[in-house]
Amino acid sequence: MEVDMDWKMEMEDLVNGYTASGESCTCILCGKQFEQGRVYEMGGELYDARGAVRYHIRKKHGNTADFLLNQPAALTGVTEIQKQLLQLLSRGMDDESIGRSMGIAQSTVRNHRFKLREKEKQARLFLAMMKSLEKKTQSAVGKSDQGMMEEVHASATMLDDRYSITPQERERTIAAYMDENGALLQFPAREKKKIIVLREIVKNFKADREYSEKEVNRILERIYARDYPTVRRYLIEYGFMDRSKDGSVYRVKE
Fold it and tell me: What value does the mean pLDDT take over residues 32-42?
């Protein structure tokens, strides 16, 4: 499962899998909230809000590490081999067992460990550098002259400058390509505008349900009767929706 998380949150919150405020503790993996001051009975035990959200994460999501590892490679920067290695490490496996499971030599496992350690060093330095720059300039790097660039949806299939979208660009594009009822006047050719329009169109689908192809077609036909199959294809291609292998079930990628 992929979700649109606030990547500006503190590292500790990302690691723990929840945020805590004076009013509630919120699971960042699914958005479920637990009210401060309440006592929750879960699994035969009593918990306060913080304990309840931790219990919820363990039972529903397993652990935060696995959840984060299952985010798209475009967000994690981790290759498929590195992801597999980290998953095996999280199970407490030693180099010999990992090598046997992955079909590689122990020396290769150690080499991957070394590269991951160096990646961690670089990530820490980069994060410190960005925070230092933001503190010095009193402005986030993601804030251009036209405003703060919008966040990329978590299920994006690739990350590049097509996603450097400001609120003004989004508003102009929607006004130019969609009418007041949300119908598409024409499908944009430029990639950035295409992403803006697709992000708006996917709002017509609920994240917590599945759709048949017939239902998807019916919704998209109301939006762009001229060529709704193309819109459907791009929703899949750009990672806004997912489709079962037999094409019978569609769902919003969270």
Answer: 95
Stretch 101-120: mean pLDDT: 94
CA-to-CA distance for 29 and 71, rounded, in angstroms?
A: 11
29: three-class secondary structure by DSSP:
coil
Per-domain boundaries in the chain? 11-68, 73-137, 148-252
Is the model's pTM score more than 0.85?
no
CA–chain centroid gap for 228, Å, is 26
Identify the weakest region by mean pLDDT among 17-26, 115-124, 130-139: 130-139
Can you tell me the distance from the alpha carbon of 7 to that of 164, in angstroms, rounded to the nearest whole number?
16
Q: Does 73-137 carry CATH code 1.10.10?
A: yes
pLDDT at 152 over 70: no
191-228 burial, b at 16+ Cβ within 10 Å, e below that, comes to ebbbbbbbbbbbeebeeeeebeeeebbebbeebbeeeb
Reduce the DSSP state of residue 183 to 3 states and report it.
Answer: coil
Q: How many Å apart are CA 79 and CA 85, to the nearest integer?
A: 10
pLDDT band at 37 (very low <50, low <70, confident <90, very high): very high
Contacts of 86 (CB under 8 A, 6+ apart): 65, 69, 78, 116
Looking up tokens 């769902």, which residue turns up?
Answer: 251
Q: Once rounded to an integer, what is the mean pLDDT over residues 193-202?
A: 92
Would you give the distance in Å from CA 176 to the centre of its chain?
28
Instruction: Take residue 95 and report the two structure tokens written for it.
Output: 């180099």
Given a contact cutoff of 8 angstroms between Cβ atoms, the answer to whether 187 and 194 are in contact is yes
